[in-house]
Design brief:
The protein is an alpha+beta fold and 161 residues long. The protein contains 4 helices and 5 strands.
Length: 161
């Protein structure tokens, strides 16, 4: 594995376009959505990310290469959530938008981003974190200790105006 010199930094408002690029690219690489759907997603998500970064409900970290370019990133969404018997916290952390640029893959960058996110979640005081794994990311998440859960999903077709 090529050990690219990488530093991890927390993203801010000026990084929204990079975060949106990663989110769009992540879905594109998984074969989710047409180009038009992905473009619409980015436009709808832009003001959401601006608000969430500003109020702290979404945090994001970027992996920077030695030249200052962005190699990848990932974030965590904090959601109000009722406590349960195994987790007395009233917030839930959901990891989103973990993405590594193609030329930087297979170099441990996603692991470094995930380790930064997990360290922050633990320091924040939460007892668990969730994510949805792509086929490409599953092995890394399992190595980090993530386990499958009993989550189920129901999608509704869009209603016509």
């Amino acid at each position: 594995m090529d050990k690219t010199e990488i530093t991890i930094r927390e993203a801010g408002a000026a990084d929204i376009e990079t975060i949106l690029h990663h989110r769009r690219s992540m879905f594109r690489d998984m074969g989710e959505g047409t180009a038009e759907e992905l473009d619409r997603m980015v436009e709808v998500a832009r003001p959401w990310f601006a608000r969430a970064l500003a109020n702290g409900s979404y945090r994001h970290w970027l992996a920077m290469d030695a030249s200052g370019g962005v190699a990848g990133g990932g974030g965590v969404l904090l959601c109000p959530w009722p406590a349960n018997p195994h987790d007395p916290c009233t917030e839930r952390a959901v990891i989103l938008n973990v993405y590594t640029e193609g030329e930087f893959r297979r170099r441990g960058i996603a692991r470094q981003v995930m380790e930064a996110i997990l360290a922050w979640v633990q320091a924040y005081g939460l007892r668990s974190v969730n994510l949805h794994a792509s086929a490409d990311g599953r092995a890394l998440y399992e190595k980090l200790g993530f386990a499958p859960t009993n989550e189920m999903r129901l999608r509704f077709e869009p209603t016509k105006p």
